[in-house]
Design brief:
heterodimer; A: TIM Barrel; two-stranded antiparallel sheet; 12 helices; 13 strands; B: alpha/beta; 2 domains; 5-stranded mixed β-sheet; 3-stranded antiparallel β-sheet; 6 helices
């Protein structure tokens, strides 16, 4: 393990701290609920779902978070704003921590940012995400909202790899007029979390690991990824038994944490059962590895609780 | 007959398709391929049939697999569009307009519509080899299978060799060790950009001196 010479910033979203030197803070684990195809959803467009089953999933993530000391974030995915409204209403009643606003549809994301602002929940929201796909309309909506935390997606299809990902963040590369970091600041976003954008396995998924280290060294910002996408996009693995697939999911998560990630978008919230122990294990190993690098591990950390 | 001629079948080379993905392969000599977008449906009778949920890498895979089989002259787009990503709209735009200098698919309404792993020649070939049948929204398997049968009757192989997509070769560059911006302790540092681990220069000089 290692210590970055650049100061590593720590962001605080609704009491959850993300960032810092390797081994300083526990990994923040974000499980997705209401994702496309999730069995608990009856109508994705309207946001009709099995409330009891959803509560059970959220509670289990919270329990594992308490047990391991790895903080958690509720990642809300919605197909439409009508659906998001229902999901938010549900989350507000049973979840007090930070949550992620996410949708494949920009209009839904924008409307969600405005909705959480109206409901006084903007300080708990993390917008997913600012990317080269963010157009003026979405930027304007974000600027008008009170949301000040966002994930910045460093995906640069015109220049794949670590250099291209850094270029799109800093200067925009050849596809954006300005760097995404500058653009995010102009939208009023202050808590920035960097996501390398994990490509399918075989298309360059591995570069997310090197990018994570490079981005922290260069920018000093918190970094994390949806490394589970590399696992789920692997056709060979899909034919294997569930236990084998879960093993790979846990391994990928631990590898991303070892590559300096501060948070994980670990995918379906049902995976909490395997991800929390894997992340706690990685956190403990990393904390032990940096002990003589003058890095103080926080009082709330798996190493203080589980060993 | 030589070994080489044995390995070449009319219109495509084994193994076909060359790019892995979530699809079902039918009869490779059929003239029709089917993309069902976000709908998990698998009509039968086509050379290849599968979903496409993304407007960049997913589209690339389709192009690569289609142009590597000269028999495929018709690409049916059906199923429900993937919200936000709009791969169906993107395939139509790619076929109609191509890409710009940055690889952006001209006219696509998708979120990040870029081609990054195909040479320009592959796009031209895709435009010339296949015609698109826009049935976006159609999920009725029987109707789709009827379309496959109807179009396959009129298909003749594209009069050229299969186009095998070769990934762009990135020019190699000399990596030099810069300033160590990560410390691993014990006077070992790493340049995070180049991913090179070394002893600190001053420490090394002291040791040698």
């Amino acid at each position: 393990m290692f210590r970055f010479s650049k100061e590593q910033s720590i962001v605080n979203v609704a009491g959850v701290k993300i960032g810092g030197q390797c081994g300083q803070l526990p990994s923040v684990l974000c499980g997705t609920i209401f994702y496309q195809g999730q069995k608990i959803i009856a109508d994705e467009e309207r946001g009709i779902f099995d409330r009891t089953a959803a509560e059970k999933l959220v509670s289990r993530q919270a329990e594992l978070s308490e047990e391991t000391e790895c903080p958690s974030v509720l990642h809300l995915y919605a197909r439409s704003i009508a659906a998001f409204e229902r999901y938010l209403d549900f989350a507000e009643q049973i979840w007090s921590g930070p949550f992620i606003i996410d949708s494949a549809d920009a209009a839904t994301r924008s409307a969600a940012a405005l909705l959480v602002s109206e409901n006084g929940l903007a300080d708990k929201a993390i917008y997913n995400s600012i990317s080269l796909a963010t157009d003026e309309k979405e930027a304007q909506a974000l600027a008008e909202s009170e949301v000040d935390s966002a994930i910045i997606l460093a995906y640069n299809p015109s220049q794949p790899g670590v250099d291209g990902s850094l270029a799109i963040l800093e200067g925009g590369g050849s596809v954006c007029e300005k760097g995404l970091l500058t653009a995010a600041h102009e939208m009023g976003l202050r808590n920035l979390l960097i996501d390398p954008a994990v490509l399918p396995l075989g298309n360059g998924a591995g570069s997310a690991l090197r990018f994570s280290v490079a981005a922290k060294a260069r920018l000093g910002l918190p970094v994390g990824s949806g490394i589970h996408n590399a696992v789920s996009s692997w056709p060979w693995l899909r034919k294997k038994e569930t236990m084998i697939r879960k093993g790979c999911d846990a391994a990928a998560s631990a590898m991303q944490l070892l590559a300096a990630a501060d948070f994980l978008l670990y995918g379906p919230i049902e995976s909490a059962e395997i991800i929390f122990p894997a992340a706690a294990l990685a956190d403990i190993l990393i904390a032990e590895a940096v002990r003589d690098l003058d890095i103080a591990t926080s009082e709330r950390h798996p190493i203080q609780r589980l060993v | 007959m030589s070994d080489e001629s044995n390995s070449i079948k009319p219109g495509y080379e084994d193994p076909w398709p060359p790019v892995r993905g979530d699809y079902l392969v039918g009869t490779a000599t059929c003239g029709v391929a089917v993309v069902t977008l976000a709908s998990p449906i698998y009509p039968k009778g086509a050379a290849i049939c599968g979903q496409c949920k993304t407007e960049n890498l997913g589209v690339e895979k389709i192009v690569a697999n289609v142009i590597s089989n000269c028999n495929i002259r018709i690409l049916i787009l059906c199923g429900v569009e993937s919200k936000g990503h709009l791969p169906g709209n993107t395939i139509l735009a790619l076929h109609r307009n191509g890409i710009d200098e940055q690889g952006r698919i001209i006219g696509s309404m998708g979120a990040i519509p870029f081609i990054q792993n195909l040479p320009a020649g592959a796009i031209e070939r895709f435009q010339q080899q296949v015609q698109l049948v826009n049935c976006i929204g159609l999920e009725d398997i029987q109707q789709i299978e009827e379309l496959i049968r109807r179009y396959d009757r009129y298909c003749q192989p594209y009069p050229s060799k299969p186009f095998q997509v070769i990934k762009r070769i990135v020019a190699s560059r000399r990596i030099s060790f810069g300033q160590g911006d990560i410390s691993l302790g014990s006077r070992v540092v790493m340049d995070a950009s180049a991913w090179i681990v070394t002893e600190e220069i001053a420490a090394k000089a002291d040791a040698e001196g």
